[in-house]
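Instructor's aside before we start: the two examples that follow are unrelated to each other. I chose them only because their records fit on one page, so don't look for a connection. First example below.
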Amino acid sequence: MLEDLLSAVPDTLTVDEVSELTGYHRRTILRYVQRKYIYAVNIMGKYYISKSSIINYLATDKAFKNTQKSEWHEDVILKFQTTK
């Protein structure tokens, strides 16, 4: 479901693009990268995150248990629950 939802999204995104896409603050995305919840590659001081890494994180228990979800993330979970 997440792959279909994000099909139009480029394969690689910056932290700012992930932040805009998911509704999470860029500091939150950076924290997820630092904690290795989301895998990123640092090239010349700029992180690049693969779409598959975002999908992998959003599908984890850690993401579901996050009590401070963005509005976008809550909407995705609701869509997932209604498609079961």
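Example two begins here.
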Amino acid sequence: MIVTLAEFAAALPDGGRLAGLDAGTKTIGLATCDAGWSFASAHSTIARVKFSADLAQLRAFIAAERIKGLVLGLPLNMDGSDSPRTQSVRQLAKNLAVLDLPLMLWDERWSTQAVERAMIAEDLSRKTRAERVDRLAAAYILQGAIDALTRLPL
């Protein structure tokens, strides 16, 4: 079920580990956060094949990491309007309803650029940046969401 920020928090009153997803056309970057929603960490990347195979890998990840909710990056244009990729991510979100976990879409406008800049500042090679960008973007997305969740009034 796709939910708002407040609905997401209400669906998980006791917290629990969350997963951040950065869905691209070729890969899905994965990140996790602790049960107390303090910090997000980059986890891994799934090479996209077809939905059934991607779903099987996501299910294994969710089970292994004991994930209670999902935060999926939504690629909007800089003015907040839908981008060409927005519709495919919204469809992925609908398809992920089979996981029966709360799912929140999160604005990811700056995620890739932010992690790219940080990796360039660390003087990482293009190859290393390409290997890490999706999972680091997922962590950036998830950190933004958990920061907002922990600021909600009780």
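The CA atoms of residues 59 and 99 lie 8 Å apart.
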